[in-house]
Design goal:
By secondary structure, the chain is an alpha+beta fold. It has a single domain, classed as Orthogonal Bundle (Arc Repressor Mutant, subunit A), CATH 1.10.10.10. The protein contains six helices and seven strands; from the N terminus they run βββββαααααββα. Strands 3-4-5 form a three-stranded antiparallel beta sheet. It has a two-stranded antiparallel sheet with strand order 1-2. A two-stranded antiparallel ribbon has the order 6-7. The longest helix has 13 residues. It is elongated. It starts with 8 loop residues before the first strand and ends with a helix.
């Protein structure tokens, strides 16, 4: 019989410990697929390598905490944010905002890193009056 069951477990000190006891037959062969997630002090927030650059995101989604925080800072209501992110639960959104308040400097730095002026400087670009990107070096040789 070939059945598939997802089991949450924690790997610590060389031992994989299931969150709940498993009902396995003696010498039953199991296949393990690892889903590496760095847990945080917030149940709905993870930092997973390869997902959102390893930055804090809502567990099971690719929604960075900084995106939800930015919408909140722009004055969107929680209901509006939820309606724009189908599948996001109120508990996940509240936890993302709670994570922000517990880690404000980290999330503010993430938000700032996405600001246009920072990106332009990082990639050595300028925008002209027609909103066209140009190399900043090209303009400095005039």
């Amino acid at each position: 019989m070939n059945t598939s069951t997802i089991v949450q477990a924690t790997y610590e000190n060389g031992v994989l410990r299931p969150a709940h006891p498993l009902d396995l037959a003696e010498q039953q062969v199991v296949q393990v697929q690892l889903d590496i997630q760095t847990t945080t002090d917030h149940p709905h927030i993870t930092c997973t390598p390869g997902i959102c650059g390893g930055r804090p995101a809502v567990r099971g989604t690719r929604i960075p905490v900084k995106v939800l925080v930015k919408y909140h800072q722009m004055g969107y209501t929680l209901a509006e944010i939820l309606s724009g992110h189908t599948g996001l639960t109120p508990a996940q959104l509240h936890d993302a905002l709670s994570y922000y308040y517990d880690h404000q400097a980290e999330i503010e730095a993430d938000i700032e890193a996405d600001e246009l002026t920072v990106l332009l400087d990082h990639f050595d670009l300028e925008i002209d009056e027609a909103s066209v990107f140009h190399s900043a070096q090209r303009h400095s040789h005039r």
